[in-house]
Amino acid sequence: MRRFAFILPLVALAAPLSAEPGLPDPASVASALQDHPSVAAARERTAAAKASAEARRVGPHEVTASGSYSRRTIDREGEFDEFDAQLTRAFRLPGKARLDREIGVYQVDAAENMAEDVRHRTALRLAEYWWDWMGAAAEARVNQRALANYETALSAVNRRVELGDAAQLEADQAQAALESARIMVEEATGRTRLARARLEAQFPTLALPAEAPEVPPPSIAEGALLDLREEVIRNSHEVAAAEAEARRAAAYSQRVEADRIADPSFGIRMFSERGGAERGAGVVFSMPLGGRHRAALAGEAGSQAAAALADERLARFEVAETADADIAEARFRLSAWQSARASLEAQMAMLTKLRRGQQLGEIDLADMLLGERMVHDAFRTEAELRTAAQRAITRLRIDAHELWLTE
């Protein structure tokens, strides 16, 4: 029987780690993120926030021009042309303009941080789709190489049957194992195509190689894990956006409270009556008298400010949870992969003995095929856990803004 060249040479698992192991080109990622509709929409929302802030800075009040013309008829005196014209403008009371400027500043700050958070979440989506593709392709390669091994086994058994050295039952067993392996190849290949299709649909400008590269072995030092945890918290745009929104809501609450005393309007009025016989000019003044409606609005704004403050605290909780969860997942994924690799080495040693024993006629084909299946499962598990560990490390690096989101 010919020697079997199984799936991934263990020496490949010890390959040195590259600067960006298994990840797409950073420039291509930056372009893909920049072009994604969610990021583009967030940019436009930031522009809208800046326009709104400018509107608040200049204030809502404008000059109002009004006038009237009439023709009056007076008995025994005749007809007269009469008109009046008036220019008025409201003025913000002291303190309101300052609050409006503060609201605009916080509004823009919140929008900019929310835009960065959208970019962050889009990067996480890209990473998930990328590792879905890489993982499915890695499993497909494992299954394809296992299929080649089963084809080799069937060929050898068929030759022994022809020579009268093996029963047809052994050939049937080898054929069954081969067909099972073929099904697994088709399934993994289909999932690879599906994952690539999803990646191309969401990020059409991302440059993809013709074939998914090998998933490299994961590696990250414990000290680096702890540093990244702090970076996740320090660089959180979610917290920064919540802080800015809480400050905006507080300033808006003060602004609505100040608006319980309405802004006064001042203006000038000119008139002509009785065909110009009576003319005059004067100053006009008006001011709404606030009531229960304005008080209710102030109460609503105060509650909204309290809610925004609670949302800020919640954002801090959630970011701390994300940081701790990222670290915990990276640790256990790495540990699980290392265990899978050790198990694979033991399975390979066992399979070598089974193959040799089967060649010497000391081991039944069924036992050897069971060993092949166990090694196949071990390689597939190792590939799955290797991908899961790389996925966890990538997620941690993105959450820390150490990957793809660096300024």
From TrEMBL:
<keyword id="KW-0732">Signal</keyword>
<protein>
    <submittedName>
        <fullName>Outer membrane efflux protein</fullName>
    </submittedName>
</protein>
<dbReference type="GO" id="GO:0015562">
    <property type="term" value="F:efflux transmembrane transporter activity"/>
</dbReference>
<feature type="compositionally biased region" description="Basic and acidic residues">
    <location>
        <begin position="50"/>
        <end position="60"/>
    </location>
</feature>
<dbReference type="InterPro" id="IPR010131">
    <property type="entry name" value="MdtP/NodT-like"/>
</dbReference>
<comment type="similarity">
    <text>Belongs to the outer membrane factor (OMF) (TC 1.B.17) family.</text>
</comment>
<feature type="region of interest" description="Disordered">
    <location>
        <begin position="50"/>
        <end position="70"/>
    </location>
</feature>
<feature type="signal peptide">
    <location>
        <begin position="1"/>
        <end position="19"/>
    </location>
</feature>
<dbReference type="Pfam" id="PF02321">
    <property type="entry name" value="OEP"/>
</dbReference>
<dbReference type="InterPro" id="IPR003423">
    <property type="entry name" value="OMP_efflux"/>
</dbReference>
